[in-house]
Specification:
With about 60 residues, the chain is α+β, with helices and mostly antiparallel strands. The chain is about 25% helix and about 25% strand. A 3-stranded antiparallel sheet has the order 1-2-3, with no helix packed on it. The termini are far apart.
Amino acid sequence: MIVVIGLVIAFVVMLILYNPATRNCRWREHRKDGQSTWRCVQCGAETTGPIGEKPTECFQERT
């Protein structure tokens, strides 16, 4: 019974932390001159931002 409750709690936590806006994004950071260039290896999208703060949304062009 304790295992079942633990699995339910783990599932609920995963749903809370799951972000569908970036579910396929795999961001890689390239630092230069105090800025970061972030590139998604999944779709090739690219953006810039502060060092260490990965993007919170997908920038893939939808067709």
